[in-house]
């Protein structure tokens, strides 16, 4: 099975690729990078890894050819956009068009990476990447599974907005105050 990760340079993307390459199932992995200079050294020489240049913000650069599975996410820069909803829709439309163009993608794992741009937080990026990688290649999710097959991933405990408020303030350096 060939799994494509786009964008691959995000923290979650790197974690997913790490998990896929460590998997004994020997899945080949294609990483889509806006800048090929960001490909980690330990990926470059791995026999089951291929780096391709592309950008989820530019549909004509996306090449998913030969891939069976796509693991894709909203890149963290989305959350600094003036209109994150419009940017997310544009990126989703670009990915959809590239998937339809190639015709070989049988499974898509789409995740939000909101908050993944921060060094610390409430969920481990490594754990999210590993979980998404496992979901991407899980053959128990078959054609008989109802679609879309939606998995909600939660941390070890439920966090209220009051729990997250001080973390957000700490991570961004801005003061956040919850109001209803």
Core attributes:
Rossmann fold, 180 residues, single chain, NAD(P)-bd_dom_sf, five-stranded parallel sheet, alpha/beta
Structural notes for this entry:
This protein is of the alpha/beta class. It has a single domain (2-168), classed as Rossmann fold. It contains five helices and five strands, in the order E-H-E-H-E-E-H-E-H-H. Strand 2, helix 2 and strand 3 (49-53) form a beta-alpha-beta unit. The termini are far apart. The relative contact order is 0.17.
- What is the H-and-E element order? EHEHEEHEHH
Structural category is: alpha/beta
Q: State the separation between the terminal residues, measured CA to CA.
A: 48 Å
Number of strands: 5
Q: What is the number of independent domains?
A: 1
Low-confidence stretches: none
User: What percent strand?
Assistant: 5-15%
């Amino acid at each position: 099975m060939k799994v494509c990760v786009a964008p691959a340079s995000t923290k979650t993307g790197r974690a997913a690729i790490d998990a896929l390459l460590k998997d004994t199932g020997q899945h080949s992995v294609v990483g889509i990078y806006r800048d090929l200079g960001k490909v980690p050294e330990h990926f470059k020489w791995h026999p089951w890894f291929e780096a391709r240049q592309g950008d989820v913000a530019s549909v004509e650069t996306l090449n998913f050819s030969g891939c069976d599975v796509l693991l894709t996410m909203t890149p963290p820069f989305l959350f600094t956009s003036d209109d994150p909803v419009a940017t997310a829709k544009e990126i989703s439309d670009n990915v959809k068009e590239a998937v339809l163009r190639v015709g070989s993608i049988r499974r898509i794992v789409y995740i939000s990476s909101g908050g993944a741009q921060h060094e610390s937080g409430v969920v481990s990026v490594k754990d999210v990447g590993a979980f998404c990688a496992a979901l991407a290649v899980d053959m128990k999710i078959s054609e008989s599974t109802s679609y879309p097959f939606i998995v909600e991933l939660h941390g070890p405990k439920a966090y209220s907005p009051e729990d997250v408020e001080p973390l957000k303030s700490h991570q961004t350096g801005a003061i956040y105050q919850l109001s209803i």
